[in-house]
Amino acid sequence: MLKSALQDIQKIGYTTFVKKLFFFKWQIFYLAIDISRFKQMKNSVAVEIQPIDRSFIPEVIDFIKPLGHYGSHPELILDEYMEGTCKGYAAIENGKTIGFVWFADKLASPNFSSPIMRFTWEYFLTCDSDVFLFDIYIDPNHRKHNKGFNLATRFLNELAKFGYKNGAAFVFQNNTASMKMNERLGFSLVGSIIIKRFLAFVALRGSRFSFELSNRNFWSDLIDEMNI
User: Fold this and answer.
1) pTM of the predicted structure, to 2 decimals
2) Residue 152, SS3?
């Protein structure tokens, strides 16, 4: 666990780590979208959409590990999703994974290790949305020439055909590309929180420290301002 945390610190650099330790402040935006309107949309990308089950997890890991998404231990995050009865779709092109979406409805029982994810899940349970989209990821090499937007639309089309009508999601303030994409897709802003403190930094880095923090009530120190 400590080795994993040190590796994370080395990746971002010690100067950046110290700045985040003392001055860390991050805003998370909560979004909503009408998924049902995607049901009749024509598919503009010729990719195969495949449900993700445990037999497909190794292929997802092979796809995502070189890209650094989910940090240095994606297998732990993905196992967490599967244990919590979350669902996923992968986009396959020419036999290779080029993106995926992870989601959960209110029948799921996720046990997210990240405090941010746990808090967001509790928020989702109180809102009118029937599906929580907590990760839409597309290979950076397939985001150009409108392909990333078309893939995201295809994922939403699959969710609409699955019967979902309203979706909830969140995005971090520094993810400007995702913010622009969400705006094009039709997501609307419904609230936000501003987070401070070192504990948030550790959790957001995906460190295994988050398991130690799972039973501690530190939200009063973690959340500086809330607007939901």
Assistant:
1) 0.72
2) helix
